Structures are given as structure tokens and as C-alpha cells.
Amino acid sequence: MLLGKQFYILTDPRDISEAYKNGSSLSFEVFVKRLLRICGSPASVVERLYQNPQSPREHRNSLGDALHTLNVQQSSPGPHFDILNSKLSNQFQESLEYDTMAGNHRFCVPSSAQSASANTIYVSLTRMCAEIAINAAQNAYFGRQLLEIDPNLAQTFRQFDSSSWQLLYLYPRWLSPDMYSAKDRLVEALTLYFDAPAEKKTDAAWITKYLEQEMRYLGFDSREMATLMMLQYWG
Questions:
Q1: d(CA 168, CA 159)
Q2: Mean pLDDT of the 138-166 span
Q3: Are residues 100 and 121 in contact, defined by beta-carbon separation less than 8 angstroms?
Q4: What pTM was estimated for this model as a whole?
């Protein structure tokens, strides 16, 4: 008991597995709604996301309730996952080629080593791994359009993610200006992404195109979709 509330700590992996499977009495809806709110979605937008659709759709529950199932479908073995996995592999392969790395000055760091040759480059391993992973996932899920909107979005996300715990603890904007500035730039880029015509986003992952279609059906505008997808991008 802490502050009048009962807490349970699961230490056995079997109990943890059962807890995740128990979606009826152990719901994550309250936690997800809170995350959506702190990511910038107004309460009215979050509530609309969890309202049951007025006409038959592919999923019987609300889009909010279907998010977990949709992510499982995208990441489970099958055609959707095969396409996503292929994009990720190709992106990693392309990013690790010498010419690509040599041309990416954000990775390179100066070296005073006398033995360095013209074919030698020095990179920041932390920066390289982070940006390659972020760009690979971003391109796999959103296609190239988001990168065209803001080529520096990986750096922006690194800035946000390094201080994102402050968002979870509800730090005010004046106390965490860098984190909020980075979050604002991410939301702005996503807003421009949803403003872009569909023909520029044909290489997006199945789940991204599906969520955009469903959110448009529910009447969300580009800004509202951006704040909702901020959590998907972050996750």
C-alpha cells in the first residue's frame, strides 16, 4: 500500500506473461490515454479515438482498443512483417556502406592520428548506431516522405528521447524547454507528413497507412493525427 493505493510487483516471468495476456481485468487503456494526453492530444481527441465506430469497419472495437492488435499484426510473421523487415534490412545495409558513412558528416569525428589514410574515417559509434536505427525504423514505417520533410528528424528524436522521462513526470515547459522544443518539431514534421498527398506515402508500412485511413474516417485533422501518431513514432 502506497499513498492509499495497492501496488503489485511481478517478479516471476510467468506472472508477467499472464498479466500481459489478461486484457479484460488488467487494462492498459488508462495508461495509453495518459501517454496520448502528455504527447499533446486534447482530451476530446483521445475520447474520439476510443469511441466505437458508427458504421461497420474491419475492427469491431474502437481504433484505440485496436492499436495493440494492429501492432501485433504488423510485427507478426506474414506479408506485412516481411515487407517491413526487408525495408529495415535494406536501410541498415545502405547506411553501413562506406560512401554513405563518409558522406554523413554527423557521424564523422575529427582525428589527429598520423596513421589515418585518405580512405579512413572516424565516427562516433553512439551517434552512428542511434541515427541509423532511428532512420531505419522511421523509413520502414513512414517511408521516405518524413525524411524529405525533415532530414534532421533523427537528431531531433534523439534530443527528445534523451529527456523524455521529463515528459512522463509532467515537467512544465519552462523547466524542460529543450525536450518540449524537440517534441514540438516532431509533431510539426508529422503534421506536414499527414498534409502530404497519399501518392507521396505509398512506401509507408501497412500499419501507418491503415491508421491514417482510419483516423481520417473518424474525422481527425492532420494536427490531431500527428499528436496521436507521436506515441506510435516514439514507441
A1: 15
A2: 94
A3: no
A4: 0.84
